[in-house]
Every structure is written in structure tokens, then in C-alpha cells.
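Quick question about two entries, pasted in order.
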Amino acid sequence: MTLFIAAAFVSFLLLRTDALAARIILKSGKEIECRIIEKTQDYVKVDFNGALIYYQLKYIKSISEEEPAAKDGSPAPVDNDIPESAGDSKSFFLAALNLAAEGKFSESADKFREGLKLAPGDYNLQEGLKMAEDAADGRVPADYAALVFRGTRSMAEKKYPEAMEVFKEAIKLNPQDANLYYYLGVSAYFSGDAKQAVDYLQKAAELNPSDPEIYFNLGVNQFSLGDYKNAVESLQKAEALNPEDGEISSLLGTAAYLSGDFPLARQKLNKAGEIFEKNGDKAKAEEIGAFLKRVPEAGDKT
């Protein structure tokens, strides 16, 4: 991505809770055993075998939740605190967005730099700074840059329909920018239209077939719609471009399982477990191992 992975930042702004064990029954009849990470009035974000998935409530029939238990058996407390350092860098990010959206690119770049002093590795701040500097120096057209920053600001404020209108205006200035279609896809999804999100993300993939993030988000949307066959295809492309991402392999294996391709499911879930284990995430590796016990050892697609 040439600017920010806006979906990641939007997720950061949402209310965070401790994970709740849950069983979700989709309107398609599929049952999902997972842990709920976030809940809003429109969707739930779940950890499903190590992969983070958004399910829009309109596609869910029912949700059964179980409060996580503390060691003494009592319900674990809910922690809604955002680390102070993260909050500080977030405030600089938002301030920089506001300045850039008004065309004040040099001032915006200064704010991005201030934020990077607190969080040197923050991807959003790094990429925002690059674009602000390019716009200030004339390497990127000012009107186009201002629109992109305006759209990103709207996403950060969770004004997704507004963000879509802004990005559509930006596309008129740069119709071959895959990032704009990516942002439109993310905004469409959070606006409650996963089908439209798929269309935008497919266009983004056509324009930039080498970005695993696009294929992964395309697969996530197809998965959330219950289109597991196409989700498998998209996630295979994401995995080919980023073979060491356990989240991609995990979701690919899960989609394969739900589509009935058990050999592929076992192969990819085993791979995901190995990646999580290698990266020191034993909890996710154990979750994968537990889920694998439910996948048939052999057999053709059903």
C-alpha cells in the first residue's frame, strides 16, 4: 500500500474487549466456534483459528457467548484501556490527517514526524509522512493527495459512506490507483455491503496483483459471505505472495474445511500451526491443533 492500511487503523479505534468464547450460527447454516474480539452494533470481529474475521450481524442467525473465566472461576475483567503510548501516537496521526485533508502538507508532515518519535515503527505514520512529503514537494498532485487524506480521515472517524464518496472523487483523478479501490472495498464492508466490497477489492487485485493484503481482504469478505470456494482461491493467491503469514494459512485452511476440501484444509492448518509455533504463539498453535482433530484425515472433496 502506498498510504496506510486503513483497515488496520480503523480496527485500532474500535472498542477492545477480552476475547469471549462463542459459537456463531450463520444464516447459511454454518456453525463457527471462535473467540469474539470486538463487537459493534453492525458486526463482530472474531479470532477463528488464529485468523481475525469480521462477520456482519445481518448474516448471523445467533451468537452464544461464554464469559472467559479467571483462575478462581470468576468472570475475567474486561480491559478497554488503550496503551498510553499508542494513544499518543494516534492523536498525532489524527492531527496530521486533519492538516493534510486541508492541504497543509508541510504542517502535516511535521505532525507525522512527531508521532514517529513516540512510535518509530508505526506503519500508518511512516506511510502518511511519505505522502505528505510527496504532496508538499509536488511529487503527488495536491488535489489528489488531499482527497486521499480526507477519505482516510473519514475512515478513521468511522464515516464509511462519506469515505466512499471521497475515494470515488479521487479515482476520477487517478483511475489506475489500486489503493483507492482497496480503501473503497474496506469502506464498503464497514458500511454493511460485503458484496460491493468484493467488487472493489477484485478491481484492486486486477490493478495490483502483487499485493497479498488485497487478496487477503478479498478472501476475508468472501469468507464472511459464506463464499468459501472463492475465498480459498483468493487466499491461495495471498499465501503465494506471503507464504510465512500464519493468519493467511489459517484462514485458507478454515475456508477449505468449510468448502469440504479436507485434504487442503489439513495441509494449510498444519502449516499455520507450524508458523504460529515458530513465531512463539503457542496459544494459536494449540487452537489450530484442536481444530485439526475435527478435520477428516483423508477423503475427496465433498
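Here is the second entry:
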Amino acid sequence: MTVRGLYEMSCALIFETPDDDEDLKAGFPHILNQILSEAVDYENQFRRLDGEKLLRVEDIPLYVSADSNEMLPFHEKLCRAALPLGVKAGLLQEDGNKQAESAIEYNKYISALNDLTPAVFIDVDSE
């Protein structure tokens, strides 16, 4: 998924038309950068399962625009089902009247990360 795609999906979750609210659009990259750093350990479980190199927070680009067509370095399942909830929570937090709803959405985001992330089993030698 691209940065722009996640922005558009997140706007739909809060019933905003993309590009209509410049404050929300300007805040999006900051929210995205935060939730990606929070979700990196969950992404790494997918990478372990697939035998891929693990991602460090330092490896994740710092995004500066909601209009970026860069691909997010995260598994598509996380991009479609968890990250939009994290962005939604951040966007709602910007609205002082929606603090409770923001907290609920953040909890949904964390639950989605936990529910979607696969377990990775390893062989352990016991002596």
C-alpha cells in the first residue's frame, strides 16, 4: 500500500473527503511516522515467518506528505486492517471533542496488530 492509499483509507474511516481538511492532511505524516514505529515489531513477525531481513525503526522512511506514492515497507495485511485504525485514532485525537473515541480507536488498532500478527515457532534444543 502507498502512503497516499493509507491516507485515503484513513480519511474514509472518519468520514472526511481526502484533501478537504488541510490540518488533518498536514498531521497525517506525523501520525503515520509514529504508528509505523509502534508497529515495527509486528511487521517483523511477518518477516520472520517469511525468512526476510528484519526491519528496524531507523530503516523506515520519515514520511512528510500524505500525497506520497511511496510504498509502505509493511505487510499488506497490516496496511489494510491495522494501520488505518492507528491513523484514525491519531486524526480523532486532533479533535478535542473526540478524545474518548480516539482512545477506543487506538485500542482497536493495538488489538488488530495483535490479532493479525502471526506466531512464529522455532525449534528449541532441550538438553
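Reply: The two ends are 45 Å apart (CA to CA). The longest helix spans residues 22-50. Hope that helps.
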